[in-house]
Amino acid sequence: MKHLFTELFGDATRLTQGGQLQAATDLIHRTLRDAGLAGAAPRQEPPDPRNVIDAESRVIADEVPPDAAARHAHEASPAAEQWLDGSFSHRGRTVAYKLYVPPTAAGAVPAPRPLLVMLHGCTQDADDFAAGTRMNQLARAAGMLVLYPVQTQHANAQKCWNWFKPQHQRRDQGEPALLAALTREVMGAHAVDAARVYVAGLSAGGAMADILGRHHADLFAAVGVHSGLPLGAASDLPSALAAMRSGPAAAATADLPACPVIVFHGDADSTVHPANGAAVARAGQQHGQPDITKGRAPNGKGFTHTVYRGADGSSQVEHWLLHGLGHAWSGGSAQGSYTAPGGVDASAEMLRFLLSHRRP
């Protein structure tokens, strides 16, 4: 055995000195294997083809000053935030999504964290919506996961959620069933607090958020609707256009449980009439007199803030009527579409309201 290792060492040294590193490595492995001294390679199990959720991780890198890197060289690094790409299949339909996962402390096992489902408007996608609302930055501070499902052009040519079709206004059918199933799948794959799951959206996404909140009060603790429409405002494309132009003729929510909701709508919105935002708030309001406050945003635009409170004094319904605002996310970033920078910070106010509610 000693002779074996002497020859092995000499041959490997000559190969290494000659620049043949791979040949030297192969020689060592082959000799040890022939001598019965090499362990078996670990067996790789093939992926389970039954899995329906697929995600690819992309770490969001933060710049670290050289002196800070040196100062913390011997400390455990925290788990970096992630921006995941994924897809999910349900009842024969596949939807893509992006998921923001906030960072965790070094060596810590994250406690169950809140989850917000964000539904984009027509012609948008996850990256555009995340950039415009700045929701990931706020979610990082709040320790919240944010899920961005993406509508397909196959399902809607303008990539709108189909809030106006009857089959997509029911609990166990169409897009509400798909989005609820995706939410539960993400909850199962990550450490999510089931009492703090929320849904919000803009325009068509806001309308679908209202549908999900009304039909899935057992899943979502509270809802945010920006420039959207109420459940039951339309039953086909002509009635949808009429509701967008003049406001809803009716809302089919009387027999559904009220879910806490915060509503934002510009009174200069020429795409979705502001009467729709008032109808969303009215469908969820509690009995009693509201608190009404008038004020001005940082850009000087005025607003009327109406709050309906529950028996315990908590805010159950909030309606922000934003004076002079068109069809855009208030206080958003110019990096995204359909945003109005400088106004009331709808993202921050929305998170404040949502996180104040927990599902029993």
From TrEMBL:
- Enumerate the Gene3D superfamilies for this protein: alpha/beta hydrolase (3.40.50.1820)
MF (Gene Ontology): hydrolase activity
| Record protein name field | Poly(Hydroxyalkanoate) depolymerase family esterase
GO CC annotation: what is one?
Answer: extracellular region
Keywords tagged on the record: Hydrolase, Signal
